Description:
This protein is of the alpha/beta class.
Amino acid sequence: MIKINPEVKKALETGKPVVALESTIISHGMPYPKNVETALKVEKVIRDNGAVPATIGIVDGVGIIGMTPEEIEEFGKRKGIIKVSRRDIPVIYAKKMWGATTVSATMILANEAGIEVFVTGGLGGVHRGAQTTMDISADLQELAKTNVSVVCAGPKSILDIPLTLEYLETMGVPVLGYQTDELPDFFTRHSGHKVDYRVDSPKEIADIIYQKRTNNLCGGVLITNPIPEEYSMDSKIIKDAIDKAIKEMDKQGIKGKESTPFLLKTIVELTGGDSLESNIQLVLNNAKLGALIAKEYSLK
Ligand code: PSU
Ligand code: MN
């Protein structure tokens, strides 16, 4: 049920570096037209750094590995594209629907295509209040079992960060910090929590992924890459916006898969668009690192 575009296919067959990208960030993570502009820019950054981008989503029930710019545009503006994580995939295939893939679903499709490195913005994780809501992103389970490594700017700061780290530890997912000892938390560089291991070069990261694969330790490696200082948000402003957005979410009774898109959208409104700008910049920053890791890994 997947279709790999010719450029990506050729790169995979000849051992060239390929980087997977997701489509939930396009359809549910950012407003149009910034979502499309960003997705196209991310692809360009990956090319400029020597790798082939493969944006992934589901079109009419077929998993697309490597969207065309026209498909990216369509994912950016079409209404009613389903947010797809692992549980949704069979339904979207069977019903021949359109699906925007989250981290978990993108990992599954990337793995099927044979892509090791995947770049996104922020990881899903254990939500605040999960003790009672049990809202834990499917992203975490996927990292435990699917052989794809994920580059992100940390778990999204709307989450419960310490619980997310505990969950990842239990699931056997190494959390690496790129040129940092401290876990970045998406909109800012500082979560106040330590990563498991600091790594200072793409080669070091590729070596760790290689060891994980050659020793059959299934699952992903999580690479956290801090947002560049100049685009990082003021921590008080973002903290207040997150708290307000979560209150509003509870008031409106929003839950399940709607939570993350609602929170991101509300935080953009509350920060007058500043959080969107940060979100865009951190993804571009991750794209560069992802391409460099894929390049190193392709030399293995
Ligand atoms: N990174 C972003 N914006 C996003 C996401 C990641 O900068 O919208 C998406 C990813 O697809 C991730 C999803 O898998 O948010 C998490 O959703 P949930 O918490 O419902 O699992
Ligand atoms: Mn959830």
